[in-house]
């Protein structure tokens, strides 16, 4: 605390901002704030967590981020991890005004994470102590490096991280295995929806026929959770290798709501940091002005000096939408939307014609000669263009179609659902990774970017 004549510190302002947030009706788990140097903040940003399983790909991301940062294209004000408690990291080099704004922004994230249904569902499965869990997984991986050697462990991590977004978010994190025999209960989790579904007319399991039981096919239906399937059904995978696949999958479950609610979440945090600063009458005028300038830099639609943006700023779009919703429908409606929606429902239901026109949103196309032109201003096209990168966790729709009697693996790309083909060189590289851990023949049926049918096959791999 400060004494007579002392200047207020960030801790003083943070305490009063948190009290104001509670007074305004915000509801959040406790937040632990840490001031960290810039190099540590960059490591958090590229690794995704302060302590995480080490892998060469994170080093590549680190170099890429440093280049962007030195060119002035990237600046990190904070990194926040939802949980109970939440953990937030702020830059030591930030000004007092910037970190005051960051404090208010983080409280907005914490409010969103506690009250949004998708965050609540996934946190109940993946746990609310991600930092401790991640550190424990990193320790297990270090033991694997020491026991099995860098080459073997990195080969498994190559495959797992190449597939890290290929999970089934409609299934629970801890799900039962498939039944061994046809007619046995399906391997869906004991959630209320599936229990009600099973009781619908015509959904009862058929009476068992006479004769010996018939072994069920693997999988009994196309399986999109590639990490889960490989972890449990790869013929020759060792326990430590399965542990790596399941660890990567568990972290993917934790990050899924952050990915799926990015526009809502960043907009909600930006709305609340703006409101908290506006109503924080205890802030000195010069600090308030500096914080508001930082706010404007965060939520502006395009880079300084530019008059047109071809990439979307989720802070700007989300902030504008929440202000629009609260002005038209009130805070109670906004809180209902916050609880019930993800970005798909948010954009499709609440990005209206008025906002599209005001924000000058459009769909553009770039030609091979480098020319770029506006292709569409229709609101439905704009909504779907915003959401397209978010479909299926941003990953191609790949499913396990069949596991052969010889242990071979048949994968299928649902390119009709995807709406696009695969980049074949990248797909071939991922197939090589998968074949090295599956250790039997692996094939992928897909189309290329021209729509031509292709089958990518990998010979039997192995470590």
UniProtKB/TrEMBL annotation:
Residues 9-387 form the SpoVR protein-like N-terminal domain. Pfam families: SpoVR (PF04293). It comes from the Bacteria. This is Stage V sporulation protein R.
């Amino acid at each position: 605390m400060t004494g007579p004549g002392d200047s207020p510190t960030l801790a003083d302002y943070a305490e009063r901002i948190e009290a104001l947030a509670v007074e305004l009706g915000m509801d959040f788990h406790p937040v632990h704030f840490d001031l960290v140097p810039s190099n540590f903040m960059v490591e958090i940003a590229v690794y995704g967590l302060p302590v995480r399983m080490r892998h060469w790909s994170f080093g590549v991301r680190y170099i890429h981020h440093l280049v962007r940062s030195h060119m002035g294209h990237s600046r990190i004000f904070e990194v926040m991890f939802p949980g109970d408690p939440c953990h937030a990291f702020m830059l030591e080099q930030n000004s007092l005004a910037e970190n005051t704004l960051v404090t208010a922004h983080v409280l907005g994230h914490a409010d969103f994470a506690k009250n949004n249904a998708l965050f609540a569902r996934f946190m109940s499965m993946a746990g609310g102590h991600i930092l401790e869990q991640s550190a424990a997984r990193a320790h297990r991986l270090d033991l694997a490096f020491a026991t099995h050697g860098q080459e073997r462990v990195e080969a498994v991590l190559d495959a797992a991280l190449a597939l890290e977004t290929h999970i089934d978010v409609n299934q629970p994190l801890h799900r039962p295995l498939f039944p061994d025999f046809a007619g046995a209960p399906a391997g869906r989790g004991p959630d209320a929806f599936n229990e009600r579904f099973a009781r619908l007319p015509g959904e009862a399991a058929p009476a068992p026929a006479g004769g010996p039981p018939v072994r069920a096919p693997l999988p009994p239906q196309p399986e999109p959770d590639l990490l889960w399937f490989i972890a449990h059904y790869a013929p020759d995978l060792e326990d430590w290798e399965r542990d790596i696949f399941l660890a990567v999958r568990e972290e993917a479950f934790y990050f899924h709501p952050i990915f799926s609610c990015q526009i809502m979440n960043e907009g909600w945090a930006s709305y609340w940091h703006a409101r908290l600063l506006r109503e924080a009458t205890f802030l000195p005028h010069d600090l308030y002005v500096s914080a508001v300038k930082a706010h404007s830099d965060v939520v502006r639609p395009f880079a300084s000096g530019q008059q047109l943006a071809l990439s979307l700023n989720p802070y700007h779009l989300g902030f504008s939408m929440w202000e629009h919703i609260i002005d038209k429908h009130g805070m109670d409606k906004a809180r209902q939307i916050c609880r019930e929606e993800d970005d798909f429902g948010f954009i499709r239901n609440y990005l209206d014609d008025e906002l599209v026109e005001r924000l000058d949103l459009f769909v553009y196309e770039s030609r091979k000669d480098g020319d770029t032109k506006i292709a569409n201003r229709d609101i439905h096209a704009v909504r779907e263009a915003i959401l397209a990168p978010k479909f299926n966790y941003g990953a191609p729709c790949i499913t396990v179609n069949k596991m052969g009697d010889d242990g071979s693996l048949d994968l299928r790309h649902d390119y009709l659902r995807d709406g696009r083909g695969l980049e074949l060189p990248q797909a071939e590289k991922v197939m090589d990774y998968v074949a090295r851990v599956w250790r039997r023949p692996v094939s992928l049926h897909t189309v290329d970017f021209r729509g031509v049918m292709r089958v990518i096959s990998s010979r039997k791999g192995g470590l």
